[in-house]
Amino acid sequence: MEPPSASPRRGRVHWQGSLLTVSLLIFWSPSIPAQPTIESVPLNAAEGNDVLLLLQNPPENIFIYIWYKGKKSIGNDKIASYIPQAQSNDSGPAYTGRETIYHNGSLLFQNVTLNHSGVYTLQITTILGDSEILAGQIYDDSASRSGLSGGALAGVVVGVLAGVALIAALVCFLCIRNTGRYDAFPRVLLPPRLTTMLSPLFLSSIQATLHGPWAKVPIYEVSVDHEHVGPTGPWGARISPAPHLAVISIQE
Fold it and tell me: Which region is the signal sequence (predicted)?
């Protein structure tokens, strides 16, 4: 009966050994170091303020920091360099007098202008000869704070004026279309007795005469003798100027 009872004990010992192995692996696993990064403080820089390109989590055993203006580490774009062990710094061709490099590799810009906005490159070299390239950027928020530029405002004003003019022209066109064409000549109303006595052809000739340019035509009145009505003769219809009616002067 002893052999069956020995097997479970061996299984328990094996399981405890597995737990011990896992614990040792977790304890001896090396921690992953944080990667170095560059942060702009503040993130959006206004013109005239100070901006710091802060180096976070720098590697150990630094030999030299070198800052460049732009995306490439080229000699002509060098701003400044710093050697921590010697506590010495050196300026380059891109140095403007407003940059200061610190012992931790951070770069300070004093009283920044629009020319300072852009990308900056940091080259880190260790004592062992390892080199690492990082990039930081200065953002300019003056455009977002100022709103629309002068050219944009002028474009908006011109667009509004053009829209108003177009609407006014459309309204005038619709009014003329609905009301019809304007008659520049006044209508001449003849007395009822004259209208009934004269023929349509004669009336049309009078209307044409009245509508002529600079025409001065006296208005006639027809007097009819009710006892002797006739087209001719001394007792017939008489057409004579009416002294009490004004002369109409029609001008184009």
Answer: 1-34
Asked if residue 49 and residue 131 are part of one domain, the reply reads yes
Q: Are residues 41 and 113 in the same domain?
A: yes
- What is the C-alpha radius of gyration for the chain, rounded to an integer number of angstroms? 52
Q: How far is CA 185 from the centre of its chain?
A: 53
**Helix (H/G/I), strand (E/B), else coil: 69:** strand
Q: How many CA atoms lie within 13 A of 143 on its CB side?
A: 5
Strand-pair category, 118-126 with 107-109? unpaired
Residue 214: CB partners within 8 Å, gap ≥ 6? 249, 250, 251, 252
For residue 144, what pLDDT is reported?
53
pLDDT digits (tens, 9 = 90+) for 22-47: 444 444 545 677 889 999 998 887 88
How are beta strands 131-140 and 44-45 bridged, if at all? parallel
- Three-state DSSP state, 83: strand
**Domain count for the chain:** 3
For 53-108, what is each residue's pLDDT tens digit? 999 998 889 999 999 999 988 889 999 999 999 999 999 999 999 999 999 999 99
